[in-house]
């Protein structure tokens, strides 16, 4: 793993991988959106309203998956001090927060015509809002240094914060099981799916597509941070040479 | 032992501690974080007359009636173990129907009727095409629904 501590080796993989993730992700999202909106029938009870799940579910998955990845980078930073951990953490936090916001927004838009409310403080919605605030806190913690070449490192506090914040992920996941909630229970479990197969397959496309897009965004942001660091290092060297 | 291994063990122990604290906290909240009370809880004495609360349950089949004034409805909320009669004046969401879930804000009246001032519809986790929604349950199971 430490072979990729060298940014050149990491970039040799990340550079060609980025356009593939981006292109394939976009194609899958467009195909899934088209299938979800045009090809499959509406839900027996909610009609066309339920089609928003083709965006809502991937957004929820990436908001939560994003923090899980953030927690892993925190652990890697704390234990192995891997130089890419901090770069990856900063790269993950912004898209993770955006997808969490997208999940909350689409959920709210979905809730009004079905439940009859934009927002309720039930367990699922509250814990998801807490995730949004956790992301905001992480961004605030790691903001200084961004764009000034110090974006590579992750402070011990930020790494611990990422790890401790992960406790919210199982709480979001279990919130509709542990507590009475307005949000319905899980549709897709280990035992199978209560979304009928004829409505389920476009969801597979959008989940995979948005995940690849997320990966592409993370790689692009990591490359930008590495480039920033190199520029800053070169400027420092130039300044030192002139000073000498 | 290498410093790396020490850090790993420390991180894992700390993580287990935090996870334990989280689980304890969540289970302590089990009652408080509930979004609504069930009819069973109401029957078990959880509801005081006149105190604002939220009641959630299924609208019992055949129980939904509109009163003479045209805007007040009455129905029975049930969870299969207990039932509570509910009265509501106003507009309900489109998905509100018999044999479907609902959540009502309101308070118990002295005569045992729950007077709601707002009703939300709850839907379940099943999604299927319209033609399958009309099928009886056993046929849905056979069709994999």
From TrEMBL, chain A:
Domain of life: Bacteria
Entry keywords, A to Z: Cell inner membrane, Cell membrane, Cytochrome c-type biogenesis, Membrane, Transmembrane, Transmembrane helix, Transport
A GO biological-process term: cytochrome complex assembly
UniProt subcellular location: Cell inner membrane; Membrane
Main location, first listed in the record: membrane
GO annotation, cellular component aspect: plasma membrane
Domain Cytochrome c assembly protein: residue ranges: 7-183
Signal peptide: none
Membrane association type: Multi-pass membrane protein
Membrane-spanning intervals of the chain: 20-40, 60-80, 92-111, 123-142, 154-179, 199-220
UniProt GO MF annotations: heme binding; heme transmembrane transporter activity
Family: Belongs to the CcmC/CycZ/HelC family.
Role according to the record: Required for the export of heme to the periplasm for the biogenesis of c-type cytochromes.
Protein name: Heme exporter protein C
Name of the coding gene: ccmC
From TrEMBL, chain B:
UniProtKB keywords: Cell membrane, Cytochrome c-type biogenesis, Heme, Iron, Membrane, Metal-binding, Signal-anchor, Transmembrane, Transmembrane helix
Protein localization: Cell membrane; Membrane
Topology in membrane: Single-pass type II membrane protein
GO terms (BP aspect): cytochrome complex assembly; protein-heme linkage
Superkingdom classification of source: Bacteria
InterPro entries the record matches: CcmE, CcmE-like_sf, NA-bd_OB-fold
SUPFAM superfamilies with a match to the protein in the record: Heme chaperone CcmE
Family note: Belongs to the CcmE/CycJ family.
Name of this protein: Cytochrome c-type biogenesis protein CcmE
Organism: Sphingopyxis indica
